[in-house]
Design goal:
The complex is a heterodimer of chains A (about 230) and B (about 270). Helix content of chain A is about 15%, strand content about 30%. Chain A has about 230 residues and is of the alpha/beta class. The two termini of chain A are about 30 Å apart. Chain B has 13 helices and eight strands. Chain B has helices spanning about 15-30, 45-50, 60-65, 70-75, 100-110, 125-135, 145-160, 165, 185-190, 195-200, 215-220, 235-245, 260-265; strands spanning about 5-10, 35-40, 75, 85, 115-120, 135-140, 175-180, 205-210. Chain B has an eight-stranded mixed β-sheet with strand order 3-4-2-5-1-6-7-8, sandwiched between helices. Chain B is globular. Classes of the chains: A alpha/beta (about 230), B alpha/beta (about 270).
């Protein structure tokens, strides 16, 4: 059950945030200033104090990160880190107080950066997982606070499963499932058999009526897509 | 060691008391000393179904309050040996039961009896919780319709979280599904949930299927537990259920539509 909000607490949690990543062949202060200024003029205000990351390649050799930081400050942007750094670039970036990030697989660096992968990993704080071994019966409520939830049985009609993380149900989902309860719309709901009364992700919800499509009575994965709930194959 | 079996359902009117009487009588018929305890304080029915309503002098609440002892209160069945009834109070309400009081009475009964059948009231309030709290096994009585199934699901949740075994982290209560008022003809027409449907939702082992039968109403009205009417389909189905409770492997009967014989087809059945 949720604890009182007035209680002091401290937690480290891994979360995902959108960051703008700059891909540019010219990382000199003058070159980057011109290119950035052009972008900012196109959409004034849009990038105000936006967090930015510079994508590095070996061709960049050793940029002056201190100077780049000041440039970003002048342009009212915040340079938070670099990605794809080689060992040398990594040291320079760290000396300038920048975070060294590793890009996900979906965004490839401009050019292959041999030797840049591997060491440059940022440790993700692991999310905990709550596992429930039996069926969740009508009237029962399970809340996985700050965690994923795995249910090995079914979730009965009139039962509720709630998680700040993802929800996996290996039986039939007949009750309500609420994932990303603390607002993270990247969370998903997976179930072996979809017959839910309600599914919700980060506050967006669908009732049973909206779920009676191709995936009713079938295995399904429920996620957010363009600000709307979407159902797909498991 | 006495076995405490609660007969429960959540929903009212599905046949808890009928089943308690039939199962208790069946166990006694098989030679096991059995007592049926009516937990429905304020809505006493078991005495009527068992046909001993005129012999109630003291009741469960009197025993808890120390106003009578068990020996004075237990009613011995006149038809079946080894069968006793502990009637509920009609004038009090469910708050008259305390955990300590119920535990004391059950402990005392456990010295004498092999089986203690607790006939639970409907609902999920104090009375029903008291009836299931001390149970070792549970017979969940369910009709093949959606509201009964959902209420049974709710009660199963209670059994696994609110019982003494759950609180003490002991082995879980052994749960049995008893489907009553089953009508194969209506199942075939799609008007009623099938055994498979109910089992899929509740996911607990099936202990018996009692067909919808005129014999049940007749038995209730005449104060005869239906297990004593061994000619009837319902009586036989309850005896099968008792046999399974005792650990025997008995095939399920009365699950499919009976084929009408030639004579029945001509003269109507």
């Amino acid at each position: 059950m949720p604890e009182l909000l007035s209680e002091p607490f401290f937690e480290l949690k891994g979360s995902l945030f959108p960051l703008s990543v700059i891909h540019s062949s010219d990382l000199s202060v003058a070159g980057l200033q011109a290119a950035l200024q052009q972008k900012l003029d196109q959409a004034p205000g849009f990038f105000h104090q936006a967090a930015m990351v510079i994508q590095l390649t070996p061709e960049h050799q050793s940029p002056d990160f201190q100077a780049l930081k000041q440039l970003f400050q002048q342009l009212k942007l915040v340079l938070v880190g670099v990605a794809g750094a080689s060992t040398e670039q990594k040291q320079l970036a760290q000396a300038a107080g920048l975070a060294v990030l590793r890009l996900g697989q979906d965004s490839k660096p401009l050019a292959p950066a041999p030797g840049a992968s591997g060491e440059a990993r940022v440790e993700q704080v692991p999310m905990h997982t709550k596992v429930v071994e039996q069926n969740i019966r009508s009237g029962q409520q399970i809340y996985a606070k700050g965690a994923d939830l795995i249910v090995r049985g079914a979730v009965g009609a009139g039962a509720e499963v709630i998680a700040d993380g993802n929800i996996h149900i290996y039986g039939t989902l007949r009750g309500k499932a609420i994932a990303g309860a603390s607002g993270d719309s990247n969370k998903r709901i997976f179930c072996q058999n979809l017959q839910a009364e309600l599914v919700s992700i980060a506050g967006h919800y669908w009732l049973s009526d909206s779920l009676q499509g191709d995936f009713w009575n079938k295995a399904a994965c429920i996620r957010m897509q363009d600000d709307s709930i979407a159902i797909g194959e498991l | 060691m006495a076995k405490i079996i609660v007969v429960t359902s959540g929903k009212g009117g599905v046949g808890k008391t009928t089943s308690s009487a039939a199962i208790g009588t069946g166990l006694a018929l098989s030679g096991h000393k059995t007592v049926i305890v009516d937990f429905d304080i304020g809505l006493r029915n078991l005495d009527l179904i068992m046909g001993c309503e005129r012999r109630v002098v003291y009741d469960f609440v009197n025993v808890i309050n120390g106003e009578a002892n068990l020996k004075q209160t237990l009613i011995k069945d006149k038809r079946v040996e080894n069968l006793f009834i502990l009637p509920a109070s009609q004038t009090r309400d469910k708050d008259a039961l305390t955990k300590e009081g119920v535990e004391k009475v059950l402990n005392e009964l456990a010295k004498d009896f092999e089986f203690i059948i607790c006939d639970s009231p409907a609902g999920i309030e104090a009375g029903a919780m008291m009836a299931l709290y001390f149970a070792d096994e549970a017979v969940v009585v369910t009709n093949p319709e959606v509201s009964s199934v959902r209420d049974s699901d709710r009660i199963l949740g209670m059994l696994s979280s609110k019982s003494r075994r759950a609180e003490r982290n002991e082995d879980a209560i052994k749960e049995h599904l008893l489907l009553t008022r089953y009508n194969p003809e209506r199942v075939a027409k799609g008007e009623m949930l099938s055994v498979e449907d109910v089992q899929e939702i509740l996911a607990i082992p099936l202990i018996g299927v009692i067909p919808e039968s005129q014999a049940v109403l007749n038995a209730s009205n005449s104060g005869q537990p239906v297990t004593l009417d061994q000619e009837s389909d319902a009586g036989q189905a309850y005896l099968d259920t008792v046999s399974r409770l005792l650990g025997n492997n008995v095939d399920f009967r009365f699950l499919t539509v009976e084929k009408k014989g030639l004579l029945k087809r001509i003269f109507g059945g």
